[in-house]
DNA sequence: CTAGGGTTAG
């Protein structure tokens, strides 16, 4: 079992073991805090002290049957109607289930009545008064368990307490708390917990894990941590459920160090993490995009011989998607299949997302084929994920087929996600007519246009220079309450570079609605008396208020707009500010043999601007007779996307325009090279004075 | 199914 998923883990493990910060070395802040809250009156040992004897005695060798984790107490539930059957009884009354016991059936009916009655206290108590006979402890639990509304559970619980029919034990509180958690009533849960303390009713691991998970569900992480620390204060050791619950609290807070610290302490105390704990950790590392962390989880699972189940595989695949690692995801998936686990829709969704995002077309299509061949389960998410995958891979025909299939399904229709994926496909493929057709179809089928669909349409209509349709779609979206986001603003900015004159003004009008600040900035750039300081200040403020992924597109587009309006100086200023802001990491790289200008992430205008700047600085170096490397190169990239291929071509034109001595490499499209000699003689030819001095 | 923990869209 452990060996079958080893193939995924063993990849490059040596490298991994060097780069991963082992949890043992992590700070233990969390535990210092839990020590600080120790009640001075009780003088209980700190967690570390509590765990010490355990780690010395139970960690290393041999069977650990004496630790509490092996023998967790089972539910104390007793079904009053199901007595331990004798062998004879078993033979004769095989079907004698409690459902047919009249007493239980009555109780169930009574519970149903309680569930159905009016929510008011009076109505509930009125029904409660009709109870056939005063309940025993077990019957009371049966009723309590069957109540759905937390208000009713609390009323019934109060009624039980007032009647004093039997002592109210921990289990009663636990059952009520579970119900309160469902109703997200942390305040009431906390009151009950304090009541338990006051009444000296024992709080056990079930109580604590319910309190903690309730706080978590209510988004009160600080309360969750607080109650975990209170638990330590009492000297109660967490069991495996409490561990996973608290690990999840830290994981959802993104507190990786705290989670790992707890993990390590738990391990030292003899806790054996199970698939749920690993699922929590895997998800946490996925959210952090931490590949080494995910491999640590896989390694630990292997070392402990934990056999992953479907949910754990799904979580790990999802995490690998977030970390952007298709290779490990693929081998993990194959391990899962080899183990005989049938993937569900979530598994396939996770995997297809990775393949699509990473443009692993072959693997994506192969998997899609296997899905059909094996009739693996499909659901709504999976259909839309397949459509998105088609968009990522540019599979227009496949998407059309799938979309048609979706329209014929019984259970659901294509929704705005599905339409958005199709708009994305038509938009990036430049298929304006089909995109517009889809837009009309959405209105007819009552599917609302979301902001991404709107962005895809605007992009597409902009490229096709269909200004009337563009404005119409934009106004439609705004009227339907679509709220422009940074991506839509970036799209409008990029579209603005396709238009001139009156049409440009119409695009800018749209932009003004979406972002008055951006619109004002464009006006500012246009004004002659604008000083650099105010450009810088305004632009920095805009960038800081923009989603990270939209910052570089903003800068690129604004530079393009400046160049279109012959504001070259402004274009250089924006590039400078953008570089200072870290938008173009790795733009310049230098080795002793070669200096390289990497413009792959720049727009046409930004690339030209960067190139001009570079050439200017090379010229100065030649003029000052400073050292140059043998080779100089500018890289535009070949462009894997349909619309990014333009960069190499326009760059080529620009190079020729300014007669720079760079030539495009024949082996590698988008790579422009010049030798040191080329540059020197070119500079000298431009300014003969330099040649004379030389 | 019987008191507590983990997974799904740009």
UniProtKB/TrEMBL annotation:
<feature type="repeat" description="PPR">
    <location>
        <begin position="204"/>
        <end position="238"/>
    </location>
</feature>
<feature type="repeat" description="PPR">
    <location>
        <begin position="274"/>
        <end position="308"/>
    </location>
</feature>
<dbReference type="Pfam" id="PF17177">
    <property type="entry name" value="PPR_long"/>
</dbReference>
<dbReference type="InterPro" id="IPR033443">
    <property type="entry name" value="PROP1-like_PPR_dom"/>
</dbReference>
<feature type="repeat" description="PPR">
    <location>
        <begin position="450"/>
        <end position="484"/>
    </location>
</feature>
<dbReference type="GO" id="GO:0003729">
    <property type="term" value="F:mRNA binding"/>
</dbReference>
<feature type="region of interest" description="Disordered">
    <location>
        <begin position="52"/>
        <end position="78"/>
    </location>
</feature>
<comment type="similarity">
    <text>Belongs to the PPR family. P subfamily.</text>
</comment>
<dbReference type="InterPro" id="IPR011990">
    <property type="entry name" value="TPR-like_helical_dom_sf"/>
</dbReference>
<feature type="repeat" description="PPR">
    <location>
        <begin position="344"/>
        <end position="378"/>
    </location>
</feature>
<feature type="repeat" description="PPR">
    <location>
        <begin position="239"/>
        <end position="273"/>
    </location>
</feature>
<dbReference type="Pfam" id="PF13041">
    <property type="entry name" value="PPR_2"/>
</dbReference>
<protein>
    <submittedName>
        <fullName>Smr domain-containing protein</fullName>
    </submittedName>
</protein>
<dbReference type="GO" id="GO:0009570">
    <property type="term" value="C:chloroplast stroma"/>
</dbReference>
<dbReference type="GO" id="GO:0045727">
    <property type="term" value="P:positive regulation of translation"/>
</dbReference>
<dbReference type="GO" id="GO:0042134">
    <property type="term" value="F:rRNA primary transcript binding"/>
</dbReference>
<keyword id="KW-0677">Repeat</keyword>
<feature type="repeat" description="PPR">
    <location>
        <begin position="309"/>
        <end position="343"/>
    </location>
</feature>
<dbReference type="InterPro" id="IPR002625">
    <property type="entry name" value="Smr_dom"/>
</dbReference>
<feature type="domain" description="Smr">
    <location>
        <begin position="597"/>
        <end position="680"/>
    </location>
</feature>
<dbReference type="InterPro" id="IPR002885">
    <property type="entry name" value="PPR_rpt"/>
</dbReference>
<feature type="repeat" description="PPR">
    <location>
        <begin position="379"/>
        <end position="409"/>
    </location>
</feature>
<feature type="repeat" description="PPR">
    <location>
        <begin position="415"/>
        <end position="449"/>
    </location>
</feature>
């Amino acid at each position: 079992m452990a060996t079958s998923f080893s193939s995924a883990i063993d990849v490059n493990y040596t490298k991994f073991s060097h780069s991963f910060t082992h949890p043992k070395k992590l700070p233990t802040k969390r535990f210092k805090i839990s020590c600080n809250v120790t009640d001075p009156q009780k003088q209980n040992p700190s967690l570390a002290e509590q765990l010490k004897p355990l780690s010395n005695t139970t960690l290393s060798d041999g069977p650990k049957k004496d630790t509490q984790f092996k023998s967790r107490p089972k539910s104390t539930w007793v079904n009053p109607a199901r007595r331990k059957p004798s062998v004879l009884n078993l033979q004769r009354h095989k079907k004698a289930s409690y459902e047919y016991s009249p007493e239980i059936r009555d109780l169930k009916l009574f519970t149903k009545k309680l569930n159905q009655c009016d929510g008011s206290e009076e109505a509930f108590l009125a029904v409660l008064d009709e109870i056939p006979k005063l309940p025993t402890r077990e019957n009371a639990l049966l009723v309590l368990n069957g109540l759905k509304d937390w208000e009713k559970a609390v009323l019934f619980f109060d009624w039980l307490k007032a009647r004093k029919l039997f002592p109210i034990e921990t289990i009663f509180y636990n059952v009520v708390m579970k119900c309160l958690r469902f109703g997200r009533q942390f305040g009431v849960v906390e009151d009950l917990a304090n009541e338990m303390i006051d009444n000296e009713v024992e709080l056990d691991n079930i109580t604590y894990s319910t309190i903690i998970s309730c706080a978590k569900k209510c988004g009160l992480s600080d309360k969750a941590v607080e109650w975990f620390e209170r638990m330590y204060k009492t000297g109660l050791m967490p069991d495996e459920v409490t561990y996973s619950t608290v690990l999840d609290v830290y994981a959802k807070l993104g507190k990786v160090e705290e989670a790992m610290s707890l993990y390590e302490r738990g391990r030292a105390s003899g806790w054996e993490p199970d698939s749920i704990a690993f699922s929590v950790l895997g998800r946490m590392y996925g959210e952090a995009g931490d590949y080494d962390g995910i491999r640590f989880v896989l390694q630990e699972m292997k070392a402990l011989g934990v056999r992953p189940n479907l949910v754990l595989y799904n979580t790990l695949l999802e995490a690998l998607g977030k970390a952007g690692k298709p290779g490990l995801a693929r081998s993990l998936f194959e391990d899962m299949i080899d183990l005989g686990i049938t993937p569900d829709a979530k598994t396939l969704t996770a995997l297809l997302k990775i393949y699509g995002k990473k443009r692993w077309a072959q693997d994506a299509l192969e998997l899609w084929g296997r899905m059909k061949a094996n009739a693996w389960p499909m659901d709504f998410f999976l259909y839309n994920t397949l459509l998105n995958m088609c968009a990522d891979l540019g599979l227009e025909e496949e998407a059309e087929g799938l979309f048609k299939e979706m329209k014929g399904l019984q259970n659901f229709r294509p929704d705005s996600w599905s339409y958005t994926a199709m708009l994305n496909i038509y938009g990036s493929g430049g298929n304006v007519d089909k995109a517009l057709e889809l837009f009309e179809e959405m209105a007819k089928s009552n599917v609302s246009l979301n902001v991404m669909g709107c962005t895809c349409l605007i992009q597409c209509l902009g490229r096709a220079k269909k200004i009337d349709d563009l404005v119409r779609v934009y106004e439609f979206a705004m009227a339907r309450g679509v709220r422009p986001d940074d991506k839509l603003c970036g799209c409008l900015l990029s579209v603005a570079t396709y238009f001139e004159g009156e049409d440009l003004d119409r695009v800018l009008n749209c932009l003004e609605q979406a972002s008055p600040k951006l619109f004002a900035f464009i006006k500012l750039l246009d004004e002659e008396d604008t000083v650099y300081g105010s450009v810088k200040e305004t632009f920095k403020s805009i960038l800081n208020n923009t989603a990270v992924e939209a910052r570089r597109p903003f800068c690129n587009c604004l530079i393009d707009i400046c160049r279109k309006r012959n504001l070259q100086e402004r274009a250089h200023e924006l590039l400078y500010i953008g570089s200072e802001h870290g938008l173009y990491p790795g733009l310049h790289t230098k080795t002793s043999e070669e200096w390289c200008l990497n413009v792959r992430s720049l727009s046409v205008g930004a690339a030209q601007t960067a190139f001009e700047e570079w050439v200017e600085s090379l010229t100065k170096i030649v003029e000052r007779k400073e050292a140059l490397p043998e080779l100089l190169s500018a890289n535009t990239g070949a462009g894997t996307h349909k619309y990014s291929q333009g960069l190499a071509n326009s760059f080529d034109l620009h190079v020729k325009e300014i007669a720079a001595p760079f030539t495009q490499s024949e082996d590698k499209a988008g790579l422009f090279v010049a030798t040191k000699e080329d540059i020197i003689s070119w500079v000298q030819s431009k300014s003969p004075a330099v040649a004379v001095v030389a």
